[in-house]
Amino acid sequence: MNQSADQNFDEMHKPDGSIREAYHGYNNWLSKQDASRMRRKGSEAESVFRRTGITFNVYGESDAEERLIPFDMIPRIITANEWRRLSRGIEQRVRALNAFMYDLYHRQEIIRSGRLPERLFRHNAAWLPQMVGFTPPGSIYTHITGVDLVRTGPDEFMVLEDNARTPSGVSYMLENRETMMAMFPELFTQVKVRQVSNYPRQLAKSLAACAPPCAEGKPTVAVLTPGIYNSAYFEHAFLADQMGAELVEGSDLRVIDGRVQMRTTRGYRPIDVLYRRVDDDFLDPLTFNPNSVLGIPGIMDVYRAGRVTIANAPGTGVADDKAIYSFMPEIVEFYTGEKPILANVQTWRCADPDSLKYVLENLAELVVKEVHGSGGYGMLIGPTSSKREIREFRAKLEAKPDNYIAQPTLSLSTCPVYTRKGLAPRHVDLRPFVLMSPEGVDITPGGLTRVAMKKGSLVVNSSQGGGTKDSWVLDD
């Protein structure tokens, strides 16, 4: 059932209107601020984002113009105790995902055990037979992971999605914090917030730790981008700059003497670690899509020879599959021997006849998603859909049920946004960013909070009108 905002867990206000513990310090500061100053700061933030070039493209729309992602000045705040519990659950999940990737491309013990049906990956385009039997340097598949979390109560955080293919959004997390510190420097002297600015350094260190054995001296790290017309190009350029890494396109690279090398003013120079923001299908035209001009011919041969690290490893997109997601409790327990600390959202697999029957009978109350979908596309939110939309989606479901999963319409938590009329609750989610290397797991405190800027909307994706907030984790 779709619930109104006043029935949702409000992260700042208790039902009686008093302030929750996490927001005490911030509210003391906010109550002393002049409304005209806050409105002025909001306009300044928009100017900063536009000047910096923090925009994105929406594919498939006729105007296809660059858009500014809305930024809200009211931070989303998490206490130190809440974050400790979340961190344990996130680390447990990411370690299980990495072990799952290794198993899928080796002995497939989880399939043999009967815990996971083979059909889930045998016909899954994200599963790459070219990776079978190969172990990436350091046995790391999921170098960078984004875990999407939603909150439904005081101690109720659940995982909504796993993003292991090419998780995006970290640049917005960093720019949101920098903008807040520039606008309200005095605020950060009054409220002790854990920093996120060291993420690029941690990313560079983590990637370097995954360099192949042939690397000599300090490993050379490069960011592979599809180019300036990609919707996330700002982030690619931003991270390369912040890491002190090279930003390269496929045309800048070639295979020479069994190494992937990049063109420089002094000739070609070997690359040890390639942080790729290019999908698997476009990575190597000799192995995957022969028409690709975004990748490097022969890179998969170099990779399988253990002479370059690709982050994330090709084939990790299996973990993004929403049908695989529905088995994550079993996956976590199988590889860690522990019960999951973070719960999944209840999920009906439409490939199962009984589940499909239930979903078709309750479409008006459920959220239905494509198993390979992302960005808020290809989904139905039953309670906010018209009878015609439901009827059309029903036909899609009946035609290809194994392409969909369904979930209840969650009572997502809300955080306040700043409007001209004052604070107003809006639904949010959270994407913490997780780095993994042979040296361990590093979780940036907080992550990217995405917010549905429209009243009552449950869709937080930027492509669907969502915005972002600065995410604070308080120091003890």
From TrEMBL:
Kindly list any coiled-coil regions of this protein. Answer: none
**Which Pfam family is one of those matched by this entry?**
CP_ATPgrasp_2
For the Circularly permuted ATP-grasp type domain, which residue ranges apply? 75-452
SUPFAM superfamilies under this entry? Glutathione synthetase ATP-binding domain-like
The highest taxon in the source lineage is: Bacteria
PANTHER family of this UniProt entry? BLR5612 PROTEIN, SLL1039 PROTEIN
Q: What is this protein called?
A: Circularly permuted type 2 ATP-grasp protein
Q: Which organism is it from?
A: Altericroceibacterium indicum
